[in-house]
Protein 1
Amino acid sequence: MQTGGVTNQTVLITGGAGFIGGHLARTLVDDNEVRILDNFTTGRRANVPAEATLIEADCRDEDTIARATQNVDLIFHEAALVSVGRSIEDPQTSHEINTDATLALLEAARAEDARVVLASSAAIYGHPERVPIAESDPKEPMSPYGLDKLTIDHYARQYHELYGLETVSLRYFNAFGPGQVAGDYSGVISIFLEQALAGEPITVDGDGTQTRDFVYIDDIVQANLQAATTDAVGEAFNVGTGEAVSIRELAETVQEVTDTESEIVHTNPRPGDIDHSTAAIAKAEDRLGFEPTVSFREGLERTAAWARSR
Ligand code: UD2
């Protein structure tokens, strides 16, 4: 993938061994000096390119942050506790990882005058009053995770307003693609693909009428590269496709693309789950030049092919 004009920079990717961070690292490593900060809680060593410098440590550790940010030009902050469910079980840990560590990172970026592109989330909106959701719509997060992401999204804007730091918040909707590994706390697509390929039941929480805006990893990377060079600093952007897919429809499409015998079963709805979530992307289109390039179906087929090859 092209680096979108991000060249010859010293780049720190926190969570650089994770799903999104790993894709960013591979995209940037040939044309930049890439540093990865990851503690491998959910990250994977296979995601770390050989040419990158690895700092294996916890992003909550302030000495680590100081070392990792030394002389950096650009920071992609992807390290997080990404599970909404985990944050409900353990709000304090969510706060430490998602909020406190981000604040420390912003402080370090201020000292280095480094641009920060920060992973915010659609979870900040909570139950939306209407879809698609615009950036200025009400924000009533339903989970500690959503609250943490809302807090750092505000901090990013404030660091621009108060200190002139170049920050951009990207409010990811539901990212998916090759490299997203199924686990108790990972995204629904990776879970459904693993279930389908193992011939196990596909577990839909609740009635499956809840909808999500699934955005393919290449387009997440595209938005990050645009955020790294845009003049629209101090701003937050939705990163999605504008297309709503219900979880039931997702389960059925997974059945199709994997050609599985797996049945769809329904379990209890998930506490703190958002009912509908679709991004309005006009702001990202107009100001970043963002344009989704991979459809849900195409992305799912590519991801299924990857999952099958594992
Ligand atoms: C995802 C991200 C979160 C945040 C948010 C933004 C993950 C793990 N979380 O949260 O970080 O950015 O998107 O919108 O990527 N489901 C099932 N069966 C399963 C697993 C999930 O039906 O086995 C349902 C679940 O109840 C929910 C939907 O699928 O309605 C999506 O769940 P998710 O955990 O993939 O993602 P979400 O939207 O909670």
Protein 2
Amino acid sequence: MMRIAQEKNLAEIVLVNLRDFATDTYRTIDDYPFGGGAGMIMKPEPIFKAVESVRQDNSHVILLSPQGRQFNQDVANELAKKEHLILICGRYKGVDNRVNEHLVNDEISIGDYVLSGGEAAALVLLESTLRLMEGAVTDKESVETDSFMQGLLDAPYYTRPADFRGYKVPEVLISGHHQKVKEWRQEQALKLTKEKRPDLLKSKVKMKEIKFKECGGRNGKRKKS
Ligand code: SAM
């Protein structure tokens, strides 16, 4: 997706090497923590200078950190609307806290576990954010029906053959009846979400949307059972 977004001129991804902003001959970017303790800390000067070398008025500066707000589809949707993102990847024991206090607008975690560096987290964030940009994916409907986009998991899908070793695909999918297929997918999405991720159904706003789907359409007509 990163290559496609760049080829389509939807995004330009620039890598900035913090060592280019170090001031000593060894290009040092880490130092011992004040107060002692294990591990090295990333120095503030190279990070501030690196960010300042690319920052624009519309930049949204993100520090990848296990202590940040949790990355999810809503955050990806939010970031996809930003014009310019700067992602700071930490290493070692972490970054000097003045980066959090005085440089960044946002701190994002990709989950409750600790990676050795922020690079993999930055890739996760970019991969999921770039595909949401207008024009990135040819089939827009495919993205809009993906898991989490409507507060539910996506429906199950099948492809040919319709009968594989006696395992048959649900009849409705080969019926050619588009409205019935649509309703079946909505029901399946709700069923799977209840089974696998009931936590997703807790949001009130999303429940409203789900209830509307259960009633079988925008006109609110209840489906015959
Ligand atoms: N001492 C830090 C702590 O416990 O909060 C962890 C530092 S970690 C070894 C080094 C770097 O990896 C972090 O500065 C951050 O950039 C990145 N990182 C680690 N886990 C991450 C996560 N779950 N989400 C985003 N970035 C993460």
